[in-house]
Batch of 4 targets.
Target 1
Amino acid sequence: MDVREIICEQNKVYSKSKILTDTTLHYCPGCSHGVVHKLIAEVIEELGIQQRTIGVTPVGCGVFAYNYFDIDMVEAAHGRACAVATGINRLAPERVVFTYQGDGDLSAIGTGETIHACNRGESIVVFYINNAIYGMTGGQMAPTTLCGMKTATTPDGRDPKLHGYPYKITEMLAQLEGVCYVTRQTVASAVYIRKAKRAIRRAFENALAGRGLSFVEIVATCNSGWKMSPVAANKWLVENMLPFYPLGDIKSVGE
Amino acid sequence: MTRIKGAVVIQTEQCKGCGLCVEACASNVLTMSVNVNSKGYVYSTSLNPELCIGCASCAVVCPDSCISVYRQSVKEERD
Ligand SMILES: Cc1ncc(C[n+]2csc(CCOP(=O)(O)OP(=O)(O)O)c2C)c(N)n1
Ligand code: SF4
Ligand code: SF4
């Protein structure tokens, strides 16, 4: 039989989410941001919350995310997405509010806003896309850069004596009472992506149930900044990032 | 014998040629084109469409959501 005969609506098992617009993503080929966007879009579609959801975008490569989701979105000042999301959520508690932030945005310039929103237990979802680098500005060291990792500002590799140690804000935030769900996932292969989607769904369900703040870290690639091919970057992530940033649920309460 | 047959439709004009789908396909269906699309990228294309099992791994890993996947059980005569 000709495989083209299979191609009809009733046999469709996977296609682009309707929550994503037709705008071409500006991300570099193979960038993890695109994969995370579509998982968030798929979950919003499956939960039927397109009209209720408001996203808050960061400064960083994710800055134009509002062009890609067919939902209401607000652009926050650098690092301040959790504060903006707090305001939205308090004024419109019936809305489902999420932030989408890089590691530079959330865990460098926005550390204070992030910690206090978590501590207050705002009923929002926080997505933390950790690619261990400042992608947008040319691949400088971030607080999350691994020891020994080469970046534009650590050409000989990060030296903790000179540059300090990388830190895991995700584990730190799990200590805070207002946070109900903390998980670390990745999108480095189809198997990881399917698991990450389940975690994203759970986070949105927590927000719908008003359980508190859900924090979802996604260990991601920045293949341009890492100066690797997309395939090599995913492999490097699994071999080098995951031993330091182990996957799985770190905290889960109130179900 | 019943077999699962799959098929993919790739939006080649949207493809940026990252190659993640080629890597994700365990059935060796996909390859990168020799030609480029209007953006100047090589794009993903089916080299062995008859080997597709419709698992959707290629589509799941695509950051630009360029791939749709179809699947059907088909009865096949064994010779
Ligand atoms: C107040 C302010 N300080 C610094 C910058 C420069 N800047 C833009 S994006 C960015 C960091 C982005 O890194 P990250 O949040 O990890 O996102 P990525 O680009 O890697 O996705 C910085 C420092 C800025 N735009 N505004
Ligand atoms: S610079 Fe890095 S994070 Fe930014 S779009 Fe390119 S690969 Fe993605
Ligand atoms: S659906 Fe599965 S078998 Fe078919 S091309 Fe995609 S990855 Fe390969």
Target 2
Amino acid sequence: MSSRPGSTRRGFAVIGQGARAQRRLFSVAVVGSLLYGALTVADAWVLGWATDEVITPAFEVDAVDVGDLAIVSLLFVGVAVGRALGVIARRLVGGIVYFRLMAEHRRAVTRQYLRLPMRWHQAHPTGQLLSNANADVEAAWAVMMPLPMAVGVLAMLVVAVVAMLTADIVLTVVGLVIFPLLFAINVGYQRILSPRVTLAQQLRAEVSAVAHESFDGAMVVKALGREVEETHRFQEQAVQLRDANVAAGRVRSVFDPVLEALPTIGVLLVIVVGVQRVLSGAAQPGDVVQVAFLFTVIAFPVRAIGWVLGELPRSVVGWDRVRAVLDADGSTTYGSGVVAGSGPVALEVRDLGYGYADGRPVLRDVQLSVDAGRTVALVGRTGSGKSTLTSLLVRLVDPDSGTVLLSGNDARQLTHASLADTIALVPQQTFLFDDTVRGNVALGAEVSDEDIWAALRTAQADQFVARLPLGLESQLGERGTTLSGGQRQRLALARALVRRPRLLVLDDATSAVDPEVEAAVLAGLREQSTSGGPTTLVVAYRKATIALADEVVFLDDGRIADRGTHVELAARSGPYRDIVDAYDQTRERADREAAARGTGTGTVGAGDKTDAPVPA
Amino acid sequence: MSGVAPSAAPRGTAVASGEDAGAWQTLRRGVQLSPSLRAGIGGTLALAVVSTVGGAVVPVVIQQTIDRGLTGGGRIDQSVVVRLVLASLLVVAVTTVAAYAMKVRLFVASENGLADLRVQAFRHVHDLPVLTQSSERRGALVSRVTSDIDQVSLFLQFGGIFFAVSIGQVIVATVIMAVYSWQLTAVVWVCFLPLVLALRSVTGRMTSAYGRVRRSVGEMLSVIAEPVVGASVVKAHAIEARTQDRVDAAIDANYRRQVEAQRLVAMTFASAGLAGGLASAGVVVVGVWLGVAGQLSIGTVIAFAFLVSLLVGPVQMATQVLTEAQNAVASWRRVIALLDTPADVADPGAAGTRLPDRPLDIAFAGVGFAYPGGPDVLRDVDITIAPGRRVAVVGETGSGKTTFAKLLTRLMDPGRGQVCVGGVDLRAVPFDSLRRRVVMVPQEGFLFDSTLADNLRYGQPAADDATLLAAISGLGVSEWFAGLPDGLATRVGQRGESLSAGERQLVALVRAALADPDLLVLDEATSAVDPQTETMIARALDGLLRGRTSVTVAHRMGTAEAADEVLVFADGALVERGPHGRLVAAGGVYARLHASWVAQSRLGQEAPA
Ligand SMILES: Nc1ncnc2c1ncn2[C@@H]1O[C@H](COP(=O)(O)OP(=O)(O)O)[C@@H](O)[C@H]1O
Ligand SMILES: Nc1ncnc2c1ncn2[C@@H]1O[C@H](COP(=O)(O)OP(=O)(O)O)[C@@H](O)[C@H]1O
Ligand SMILES: [Mg+2]
Ligand SMILES: [Mg+2]
């Protein structure tokens, strides 16, 4: 971002790293570029030589020497062919180096995403992680594109000075004034430009973030009629971006024409001085032509050095962000144990405590035990910590204190595969992949069609899947947007069931499902549990779900407030009753009120003509 | 009923990709949409023409110097050379200043025009129904207001201007060459001709190569999002390996596409240099020949070598710039297609009819709806609801309840038929009236990444903290609020993810209550909330909504029992309606749904210990 000298040094360190990582290909690109550089100078030399040795003599003696002309032609064409090969090596192989570095670092960054724990994910905004894997990787390595060319140009400048020395010392001095000047202006240009470009880039990311959020929340924006305000919010960012782009544009507008004019001025200088030198007999006309031509062909490539220097700060910023991901540690470390045997496992939670980043304890001193094959309902008010507890069980996050035991095995001692095979969580929020129904349910596991359909049936998803045009092979689109909420939830349930877990954790997994379907799902689950199905922990509010449970655990403000059968809890715990009997209480109150008004719930207010059931 | 005729608009709308518009058509329409692009364009072009002259100075001076006696030992008049050089310096100075002025004007005009376009497009997206239908990927819409427009601006400011200046340079060089010698001009052009002829096909190949690159980038980004957005699922099911395979495959595909495109670029670049070499050789050979025959001066021959180098650059870059142009046109086209997608859910503005100032009634007349490319999900819905009624909507998952709610609040327009509120066709109601009086709370409580207060204020920006607190206690959720770490200043995280799912719904409800609507539509707005809180909210809403109309989509039949009237949807049709008691007695769909709910909610009392 800044042009601190440190940033240039660190930029070169990044370059060095990239070059080492792709040593072989990078060398090929540099050799190609050196060839290109040397032959560009050779081109000027051929013209100078031809002027003195072929063209001038031919005009003087008024005769054509075919042999000489053939040599000139061969030289021109030979140089051009060699240069073309150099260009291919430089641009193609150089490009491959850049693309490979990007691909490799994208792979490395996404591997980190897969490795790092949920706690880390929760602490980093989604947008930032996506841009780390994309824009930042690109920013870190974009410098590799012009790099071989810049190296070639450096070589070219050296060769050019040598070539000029063989022509004439005084003309060389002109070159030694113009080239460093060109170089310095390029460096100054990039130094002034790059902070402006970086700013514009940041603003571009902000514009994109506002658009993302605003479109994501479009329902709310629309439902509350806030389109105008949202547009203002976006406009503010868009205008800032525009101003930043114009500011960078102004810098370009000054420097680009100057950089174009400078070589022309150099050539004019060479001519004035060159005429003097030729008159004094110190130089040949061909020398003047050669040096002048050199200026013409070198002027543009020299900019590559500026490009590299200009990319350096961006490269450092991008690399720092990528590095932050690559260096992040605190991965969930898994053990080497497995839960022996098959069939349901027992769950035990001891002294569990947990708080999110803000430090407020969400779970305190949680004790919980579920015998193998039993079903326990977890009941608690909104925000009491139920979802947090379920995520601790599958080690999405690890507790600040306490342990989770599966049939006596500390969950932290288990391998990841064993843990995942043992427990399946159906989270409160459904996430579907941009994949087929099969891909979303099987998640890459080798599962037979019958098993998938069986799981779909238990989850009451078989009917709507069968109605999809391609059945199991139907694509669901980004995050399953073509399905209704209840349909998505049932696929998530099937996804858990198909894995035949030994402990099934359901976090309010039927909230978007209608009562009939829910009843059918519950019946299916009950059937499973009576026939050697999994141990089940189910976050529930509805009595039918609770009725599935052998035992109820009542979570209040992050603590286990009570436990026992539903009947016991209902008898002794007022807060528990308030939750599970809320509907009955409401119904009773309504009935009482209706009775007081002298009507039943079944009668309607006055004057509605259309209250007869419409035939289906 | 208002007089607006039921529309024959297509059912649901998808944003066109715009692939079919021609380049000129796109350009014309683009400039029309961003008039600032045209500002001062004449002056800018004139300056561009002037700025191309500078490059031609060198060959002319070389030719003059040589032919005035630099070679062949003839005495050359130094003062002539100095004058020539001074005049040239003047030309260079003028063209440099012209180039500066031209670029500044171009940057300012294009950035102004494109910023306007960006904002217009953003606004238009919010007017389209696609967002609420989510039939198109939202990421794709974001890219239309971001990277697509960036692409256009990059082209206008770099590739485009390079192209214009290059054409000027080629023309100037060709004119000078033709003046010097038509024969040598012909030689040069014969060498470049194959490239110029191949331009079209190479550009075509390059455009499709870059099209493939772009598509592979899109696919890669969507797959890379999986381990980020779906992190918990990936981890919970230990499918890291599978996810990594998918990601690696997408990254590899992108890599291969990039290399393919780069191969074309390198080849065309190299062949332009080759043509330059051939041309130089040709110029010297033919030049010497003609010179010996007395038709040319030696200076002309050497000047030609310089002129050839003026052609190499533009020809080298031509395919690349043309490809960029194609990409820019394609991007522009996508933005234009977005803007030209009729905003069928458009604000009629001041010309519309405001909702009457009384409790609102609802009337659906022959309403049908299908999502783009899908079957009918609502059919022949005819219904009137008297003002002030509390209506519950029930039905199986996928029966069309949410669709009904969206049509009722005009988040979408019906494909057939008409939706009237307060006697006015919704299509005729200005948004400021509609959105103030009619508010919907969707199931997913979406929150913006800001504080709780900002989110609550979203529908009522003027509300002070006291009003917010009053609304919180008015809805009976003060107890929950008291437990928040920073009260109103609590940060809710991206999409509200630092709150629990139920808490997000609470915030969405308070937000809606603050907006103080006359018709409130709740679409399973308390599905993630515990029953106690839910019934408390229901009671509080009852009080708040007294005398107003409400429509509540609910799975929990408690809502239906308490409602004045129940609408029952099945498979896209309204199959039953009436008060709870009558529907139960009728023994239809509702009776069945209710019975299973009662069975569930009563089971507890009968359940064996
Ligand atoms: N990612 C998070 N960051 C900070 N706080 C959180 C986060 N997720 C949940 N919380 C807080 O933790 C508490 C418990 O949340 P949760 O376990 O989701 O509750 P429940 O599932 O019982 O409704 C809530 O107060 C919530 O605000
Ligand atoms: N964005 C969409 N694109 C295509 N089909 C959709 C979309 N949203 C919903 N549907 C389909 O429309 C039907 C009705 O959906 P919806 O109104 O959400 O039902 P409900 O709210 O009653 O569960 C379902 O079959 C669903 O699959
Ligand atoms: Mg929860
Ligand atoms: Mg719905």
Target 3
Amino acid sequence: MQKVLLGVEAIAQGAIDGGMSGVYAYPGTPSTEITEYIQHSKYAKEKKIHSQWSANEKTAMEAALGMAYAGKRAMTCMKHVGLNVAADNFMNAAVTGVNGGMLVTVADDPSMHSSQNEQDSRYYGRFAQIPILEPSNQQEAYDMAYYGFQLSEQFGVPVMLRVTTRMAHSRAIVNLKETLPENEIKLPTNPSQFVLLPVNARKQYKKLLASQVNFEKASDESSFNQYFDGKDKSIGVIACGIAYNYLMEHFPEGCPFPVVKVSQYPLPRKKITRLSEETESILVLEEGYPIFEELLKGYLEKEKVKGRLDGTLPRDGELNPDLVAKALKLPVKYGLDIPKEVSNRPPALCVGCGHHDVYRALNEAVATFGEGRVFSDIGCYTLGALEPYRAINTCVDMGASITMAKGAADAGLVPALAVIGDSTFTHSGITGLIDAVAEKSPITIIISDNESTSMTGGQESAAKGIIEKVCLAVGVEAEHLHVINPVKKNHDEMVTLIKTELAYQGVSVIVPRRICVQKNRRDIKIRKAQVE
Amino acid sequence: MKTDIILAGVGGQGILSIASAIGVAALKKGLHVKQSETHGMSQRGGAVISHLRISDKPIFSDLIAEGNADLILSVEPMEAMRYLPYLSETGYIVTNTAPFINIPEYPAMKTIMGELNKNPRLVAIDADNTATELGSKLSSNMVMLGAASPFLNHIAAEDLEQGIIELFSRKGEDVVNVNLAALRAGKEFAANAIK
Ligand SMILES: Cc1ncc(C[n+]2csc(CCOP(=O)(O)OP(=O)(O)O)c2C)c(N)n1
Ligand code: SF4
């Protein structure tokens, strides 16, 4: 059977067909649609394949490891920065190894289309010393999710599946394979495998190290990696992941230079060695950081290696056919210039969004205290940093609003405020709140609750119905916990409330609560469809 | 034979249904298709672009190279200009003339049309108006698809009609018919414009 699928959808379908029993994820562009596809799959529903959202990437990865402990196949998905959150489990899961197959699917965002940075997850894969798969097209994305579980079970370690924005969000025709059955429950044969006490951990780690040669051998034998000979030996090209397409776009009839297509890591040593022996110099095309370029070049630069480090390609940002053409000194075409009248369309909060009302009140309430004391977080409400509000001073990583406000208050910046979304609060805000309560830090926290994870498309929020309970449970005083409906007619009340709490020398939490306009619209549509 | 299309517009204007209709039609003909699109921020009102590539041979790159697009199909006039670097020397611009104004410094329409008219291969249609006259402003994107149909090489208008029927059949006969009418109106306009 054939289907037209986005790269991320191909991964989802490949995992379902590959016998997966559960996906565990927290939303994040460009990875979100993997889990959504599985949530909407009829087959997955019938088979009760787990697909409910997790509170954050760490809880997601740990649950996936638990499923793999029990012998079943599990996938965890996240955007690149999500792997920072899950890194503790990730690094240690490489040491415990797995029992059932485990895929760690990470979507990177070079050029930062919708992210805070463009970190390259292949570094993490290398750091954990596990095999990495990186598709060059949608068919490979499907095949890799499908075979990834088998690879993971063959070597007994988690396998990373890494994509970038373009691969994630581009569609093509994909040929599907037969659906494999799920694994039966089966406990690990070695009872101490998952008990990482030093005595066991040392053994497990040595096992991981001993496996490295096998991972390398598998890369050399993998059909995802290919050596294509070429007549012109002046340069050899190592094309990683999607960069292979940008290269071949210029040579549909075959590349004149020898090419190693790399879609499975560690690097296929034999193929790379041959390329180095047979060509005068090497060009490395990587969609991300120049990780393998740096490795091949070496500190002493004894190899002639070109790429992002010597300026042959830009040091940052995503690749495209034009950049690859320039790197190979091929003729490039230029279109017309963009007329100077064309202006940007910056993203803006939707009309009617409750975050508007929150920022209007907030700006009025803090006006007397002066600038620079509002610590915020990641979500739709981050747009409060732009015109017309310019209301927030930070956006760093999920959960950092409360903790940074605390640190600043400790430094003497009193009062300090935090503005955080409901989903971000349950993702990583609660632990910071515990710290603040423990020290009675003079901070006012605004949890702008739109009952939705909106920035990524309106997924269900784990915070729904529990915010007040959580706050009280960790010790926020009832007199300093308030819920208010952020609408125009409550503006004055909200301003007064914020001002009053700013005067309190301890932790206050204000929860303006009104459902996201878009989420509400979608929910109504879904309910209507269900009635019909 | 290969057709490279840049689809442009503002978030929420429905360029992805245009891409889907072309995609469905191309698949039916056994052609290769690649289509990359902008996701991300869920708020409306940002510029969106989709690279749509159709060929009778396998397609490598998900992105179109600069100066290579055979067609810029834009559902918004200022957005048509944003992607001019992609247009090939022989490429066409097919654009809606109804502006989507959600920023303070939106240029004057006269300026925009002046810039666009510098290109000899231009089809500019008020698709919002055409669609409204047909009784469904929402079908404006199908008017645009119709206006682009003469430039789609491998794909005939009949194939697109099949694509539309497939895409909208869930929504009932009336929706299918108004979209088909929109497609035909756009096609007729373009045929006259390039005569
Ligand atoms: C570690 C990490 N995971 C995921 C994301 C992607 N992400 C950015 S904002 C957001 C949702 C925020 O939801 P919420 O806090 O409820 O705010 P809203 O967008 O609804 O206003 C997500 C999932 C991220 N930037 N970092
Ligand atoms: S998607 Fe929802 S939360 Fe985001 S700006 Fe729009 S209304 Fe506000």
Target 4
Amino acid sequence: MIQFLLHGFRSVFHGSRAYWLWVSALLILVLVGLNAYARQLAHGLFTTGMGDEVSWGLYIANFVFLVGMAAAAVMVVIPAYIFKDREMHKVVIFSELFAVAAMIMCMAFITVDLGRPDRLWHLVPVIGHFNWPGSMLTWDVIVLNGYLFLNLYVCIYFLYTAFHGHVPRQGLYLPVIFVSIAWAFSIHTVTAFLFQGLGGRPFWNSGLIAPRFLASAFAAGPAFMILVFTILKRLQAIAFESTVIDKVRVIVTVSLLINIFLAGSELFADLYANSAEAIHISLLFGLHGESLLAPWIWAALGMNVLAALILLSPVRRQPLALMASCSMIIIGVWIEKGLGFVVPAFIPSTLGDFVQYVPSANEVLICIGIWAFGLLLYTLFLKGAIPIVNRTEIHPD
Amino acid sequence: MEKDTKPSGALSRREFITGMTITLAAAGAGVAALSPLSGAEETPSLDAFLQQHYKRLTVAEKKAIFARLEAEIRSTYGVKAAIADPPPMDGVEFAYALNIGRCIGCRKCVYACMQENNQSRDPQIQYIRVLKMKKEGRGIDLQSAVHDYPQNEAADPDYYYMPVQCQQCKNPPCVKVCPVHATWQEPDGIVVIDYNWCIGCRYCEAACPYHARRFNFTRPHIAPEEINPHMAYLSNRPRYMGVMEKCTFCLQRTRVGRYPACAEVCPTGARKFGNLNDPQSEIRKIIENERVYVLKEDLGTVPKFYYVLAK
Ligand code: SF4
């Protein structure tokens, strides 16, 4: 084990100039974020743009988005294990490692959102006072930690055996993989239930939230993995056949279409019924003419539709077009989850008040810091894992 | 990144030194990045950090905690306060009735509440929000209501004034969602918060359909001379930064037989308060004989705050 860790340590400190530049840039952003968080700890959440009307903002939005990204790791795991796709096996570990990094980012986003992070221990079962099964948040604590643990186990087990040149034993990983596939659905479903169970917020109180969460996550997550795989291949860090990208692309396309369909279906219900609370319409057109959100929502919708058009047309085979549409999906879904999902439920407030939300600079810096931290972790994970993965490729036992 | 096929070659001395320097520099920069912490508004003491949930405290522990809190209040505000812990009365369930036919929107209740319950004055935290709505037209319609009308626009006969505060629901969504049981319903129906247990996740604020919960986004500020020294642990003692708070039907008063501050101060008699379980009480008479409604009945929260439409 010590050798294994030492090896990882060595790989991480062994890189090209571009690698060091990338790592240092991320590290600087992490420190900037940490500095912003220290300011928030000192003066309270007052330093954010949130208030009693819009009481959740960017932090929770990023959290929701990243839960989806982590869940989406299974969309690469499923073809690899259930359909026994050999090429997929080569890259599956990279998406599991991303799930680990994303989970850690999720927990960081929840922690920075707390008013009293010093009391985090109150959330620990037994020593704290865990409101389970009553509160959906406690369910989320369980499933998120569980998912982190499962993926961590699978990653470490594979890398460890590969490092020692052993063949992984099916009994020791297959059951865990199957559990983690089911678990992935649960993390995003429970996160959706967190919102859709609140009767006082009609915008969230819809049974379509969980399916929409899954569809958008299964578009954005694999889209991100396409970017990662393509970049790593370009850097000549890993090698795989292009069928991998083609398969993931199909997953992205189908999920994206389902997502657009579900969004359209919700929109129709509102438009046709012309209800007093025509919430989605008010978002799109700015009810009472004062929505700061409207342009964002349009942008998200536009990006999703444009990406779908690219993915359905023959240009999708062009790497550049594919990368562009993947980026659009990621950004589009990010906006959809944040500005399009978390924030609008607070506008109007439960007493009909229109208070807009603009995140503060400090809040944005904290978010950037957490993202940089997550990407840094992921980079280091990849840096440690790639040599091991490649070695087994070259000398298969 | 170059092709990483042979990483296991030994780490060269130069690489090791570079790596170590970077790690040390990062650690130093990390400490520097944390420097704003030295100006923190509040730092919990070890006792406060380790304090258990209210319902798990023994009588002796409570006594020690109340003494510690009193000492904290003396050192921050220079005020000698007494923290009591009045228990709920047997067989009592409190309810409120508010006659919007009488309310003139003067907001005396809003300020009496603030004074009684030691809410932060800067930033200002209010538990009661008075909504002003035109009688002709959409009637009781929240989205057309305004709450920030100037004081000289109170008492307009063409408008309804509908104060909204915690509805003390029988099925409180805020209690259900709290991940740590920091907020719960007492036997007399009052929903309370342990300000020393709340982790500040604001899930309850998202769940509340009545905008009744208030969060301390920063450290509450109250001038020492404005502190009300008659406090209770579960209600009007000073709050911390980063915790939730709300109306508690002034349990420090009502559990010892007094009226809530808002009911007492109301100049028009629009506010009535009493025991729902007592068939002879005024509140029961109102509910049985008048035209009453509750807010957002369809949500199934079963508020114990009744609105009355009468003269
Ligand atoms: S803010 Fe406090 S009281 Fe409200 S749900 Fe979170 S921990 Fe519970």
